[in-house]
Amino acid sequence: xxxxxxxxxxxxxxxxxxxxxxxxxxxxxxxxxxxxxxxxxxxxxxxxxxxxxxxxxxxxxxxxxxxxxxxxxxxxxxxxxxxxxxxxxxxxxxxxxxxxxxxxxxxxxxxxxxxxxxxxxxxxxxxxxxxxx
Length: 133
Prior knowledge:
Blueprint: H1 2-24, H2 32-55, H3 59-73, H4 76-88, H5 92-132
Helix pairs in contact: 1-2, 1-3, 2-3, 2-5, 4-5
């Protein structure tokens, strides 16, 4: 039961953050809010995934973050639906652009998040050595 509460808490926070970000971005003919949310989600999941490998996060923390928070925050199903809607209304170029950007930028952001954590750890170790010698 405890893991379910942890999952639900992460999901509630992720859904709330999704709502705040999506609401703050003006609607246009291209679904920018979904691209931005997916990109941010990919970046932070990459960043925290690597951090979880370094710090060995508990299973509860992993459930909270990777299933709850990011599961509710990222909007892959919305991205798919908006792509279909773009096709339905006769916008095949925007549909293709949406697929290309969400996939390319998502993978790039996850890699960037992972690399950010590696860099922070590397710099922290160097700074730590400077102050301990």
